[in-house]
Amino acid sequence: MGKNTKHRIVLVLLIMAGLVIRSILAPYTTGSDIAQFAGFADTFLRHGICFYKYSSSASFIAEGWPYNWPYVYGPPLILFLGLLRLFVHGKVIHYFDALGHYYVYVPVNWIIACKALFILFDTLSAIMIYLIIKRITGRGSKALLGMLIYYFNPMTIYVSSIYGMFDPVAFFFLLVSLYFIINNTRIMDALSMGLSLVIKQTMLFPAIYYLLYIIRSDGIKRFIRDMIIIILLGLVFMAPFILCPRSISVFLENLKMTSTPSYTYPISYSFNGFSSLATYLNSISGSNTLWVIKYWFVPALLLTIVYIIVLARKGGDPLLSVVIGYLVYIATYWRINAQYLLPAVGLLAVAFFHPVITGRARIAVVASIFLIGFWPIMFPTSWWAHVHIRNPNMFIWKLLDFFSLMVFDRLYYVCYSILLTLTLYVTIITLISRMHRRIM
């Protein structure tokens, strides 16, 4: 039996083990977004191409959503959710009791339907990480380790299988783009990157950094071509919805509202250290610290300038450019939630095995991966095993408690987010310092 065959067998066994873990947790846990997704899907099936017209917070009561959160994503997600909702009709129950307490309960069949989608793309992402690392290193053993780092990271399992969020879908297409990039498959790299961006706009920074790399490596013509591909792809998905009056204006209003900096509550779910600290200081002293959050773009701009200077003077690497772009986003953007860290784990795993990454850079990468994976162990994750589950599974509840440090004090989360942010800054700088030693 050859090495390649052995590695494939181990890959299948690791995937099976990961799926077992996910299948145990997925039906008995859920975050609040899955409840809201049911409302979004019902609105889409009700209004069709006029969905975005009814996607703002102003519509949540009339549309029967459990929360007043607007829909701020591209069309692919609502198409996925609408398709699922055609076959899964479980009703989300939400009400106030006599004491004014608000309850939201999600049917198990809808939890399973959503998480099946997220876990599918989570697993496909793990396979893509294996293929990418094997391609850049030529070593199946390293590819297996990189895949394991992503697929069994507590944050990855938390996002796809406990809370339940669709970031693995967008991340998969970003990884497909990376695979096309390292194989120099032009046009397909821009198409898949554009698709990841249309699915979730959190992929904007890696797309920008990659396009900056394209200008340096291939010139303005390819940059313009790739830009056109990405823009046209977005227009293709949005075209049917544009036909409905006011759809685009409501969508843009939703984006503006959700992107306007504010204090980041709850602090335990805030991963930007500066935003967390500013929010905490405001909560205990009443001091106006919002300016710290409002100027989040300053460090983002400074890091981008450093990247551009190194890129212009010494050249760069396409894969590391994408990694650096995403890390700059999660290190600097004013509101970073847990689900945004799932792509970071996978990209850091790929970066760790990049041949030019050695020494201090590898230490920084490992530290970032460890800190991201530590949060689901700090957090009382079992909250999602009962808050939206009408008949909680006590075994899963106690199992999650067993693996949790059950940290409730907000100050610990402030310290954690500061440490994570600073570690990401160090990681970004070390990757930028190495990216010009291109091997691809």
What descriptive keywords fit this protein?
440 residues, mainly alpha, two-stranded antiparallel ribbon, 2 strands, globular
Structure description:
By secondary structure, this protein is mainly alpha-helical. It is 69% helix and 2% strand. It is built from 20 helices and 2 strands. The chain has helices at residues 3-25, 32-47, 60-63, 75-87, 108-137, 140-151, 154-163, 167-182, 188-199, 204-218, 220-242, 247-259, 273-285, 290-294, 297-314, 318-332, 341-352, 359-378, 394-402, 410-434; strands at 93-96, 102-105. The chain has a two-stranded antiparallel ribbon. The model has no long low-confidence stretch (mean pLDDT 95).
Short account of what is shown:
The chain is built from 20 helices and 2 strands. The protein is mostly helical and 440 residues long.
Question: Can you list the strand order of the major beta sheet?
Answer: 1-2
**SSE order, as H and E?**
HHHHEEHHHHHHHHHHHHHHHH
Mean pLDDT across residues: 95
Low-pLDDT regions: none
Beta-strand residue fraction = under 5%
Distance between the termini: 30 Å
Report the strand count: 2
Number of helical stretches of at least 4 residues: 20
Shape: globular
